[in-house]
Every structure is written in C-alpha cells, then in structure tokens.
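Listing S7. Sequence submitted for prediction.
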Amino acid sequence: MDFFEETGKMAIGSRLRMLTDKVTEDAANIYKLYGVELQPKWFPVFHALSQADNTVTAIAQHIGHSHPSVSKIVGEMAKAGIAAEKKDKADGRRNVVSLTAKGKKMAAIVKDQYTDVNAAVEDILFVTRNDLWKAIEEWEFVLGQKSLLKRVEEQKKIREAKDVAIVAYTPRYASAFRQLNEEWISSYFTMEETDYKALDDPEGYILSKGGYIFVALYKNEPVGVCALIKMDDPQYDFELAKMAVSPKAQGKSIGSLLGQAVIEKARSLGASAIYLESNTILKPAISLYHKLGFQKTVGHATPYERCNIQMGLKL
C-alpha cells in the first residue's frame, strides 16, 4: 500500500484498524455461514458465559474488558435473547449472567465453527513468514510494561534535547536568569531577600565568590538556568541553586541537563558533595533531584522561609 510506504510506522494504528475491520467483517459473515446470530464484539463475553455463569465484574476481569463495556454487551445480548441476568440465589446482592436456551444452542453450534476457524488461522500462519499470533502476544507484553505513548514521550525528549545547548553564563543572560527564576518563585511562593541578592547581582553574589551559572539554550533561546554557589561549609563544597526552566520548554529534559552540567562542573573542581534546598510542593523538581542522586538531609540553617526539604549529593 503506497500510503503506508509513505507514512511508515507512524500509521501503525490506522493499519491495525484496517486489518481489524477486515477480520471483523469476515467474522460477521462467518457467523452467518454457520447460522449463528452473534455480533463479533460479543464473542469474548459469549465464550466466557459458555464456560460458566458469572457476574459482569468477573467476566470483565476474565476477558480484560472494562465493566461498562461488558455491561453494555450483556444488555445487547439480553435484548437478542442470548443471555439473561438474574439475582444470585446464594447472594441476593449480586446479579449473575447466564446464557439462555437460545444462547446454549448457539454455543453448541459454535463448537464446529471454532474448529474450522482455528484450522483456517493455522493455514494462514503456515503460509506466512511471521507468526502474527505470537507477535501480538509479544506486543501486548511489551506495551503492558511501557505504553506506546510513554515510548513516544521518551523519544520526543531525546530528539528535542539535541536542540538544547548548556552554556556558561555571561552578562547577556542576566535578564533571563532573573526572569526565569522570578517567574517560578512567584508562581508558588513570595520572592525573599536572598532571592533578590542573587538575582539582582549574580556576578557579585555567585560568580565572584567562586560559583558558576549555567544557561540552557533551546534553539538559541535561553529557557533554563541553574547556579552552582560556593559554600563555606565543612560538609558541602557547593550548593545547587536557582534552577529554573521556562514553562514553554518543559518536557525537554532541560532540568536534567542543567543538573548534570552543574554536577559535572563540581566534580571537575574536585568537590566532594553538593547541597540544595527546595520545597516538597515542587514534586517534579524533587523527583529530578532524586534521579540526579540527591538524598534528603537535615540540620542546615536556611535563609529561605519556603524551604522545607534539604538534600545532599556525595560525589
């Protein structure tokens, strides 16, 4: 098919739908061939009921469908006279679904259909190089571990990260350093005296004292910043501080890239440990710090009212 040659794997959903539609159309005609008044979508529920009476909840769990979906199918089958729902004699709080006499008669006929359909599928598998049945099982297992959506999100981050450059701070980035930090701080908290000291004079407060500032550029636009502040502390050499990422650039691993750059710089300077302060309301940030290797610590004086968690990283 030319269309799928053009689009490639991006059209996997469309291609699978076309195959499903074809098989479903054949399935409907196969039921007619055997004189069975079943809709293909009813089959999982019908088959489960042919094995034993059960509740909608139990059927849904057994066939891997949602409760509303099974309930709807049961209603359709009941309207067709194939299934019936009644109170459980042993437990009046439950409704049990069972096949009617008409449904049981159809189940007997379908046994021959099962045999023929299974043989037909085996015939297809015999003349094809790839075993679709096994492939479906593999895909279900793999997607159960990590969805296609999650995998695409990861690939998106990898691709977009290639357009991110981490550079050293220069005065040209002074306004971005202030704006990006003031934006996130004001969104959650109130700017404090120490914030103004660092953001109003990054050269004097951070750089001249042996610290560093990194700037993340996405397609040459400053969208993230992070500082490495020299500490006069027997336990920690530097503090990771003033990390900020523009909301429009989030989801591109910029925070992670900035954190890694800061850590590598500290390591190259012979530092043995890095310290940071944050607030647990900033869940994505806390998650990032954990991924970077930071662990919760206590006991340090803080100039920030908003600080309710302190973390450290041994290098």
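Caption to Listing S7: primary sequence and predicted structure tokens for the chain studied. The chain has a mean pLDDT of 92. The first strand starts at residue 83 and ends at 87.
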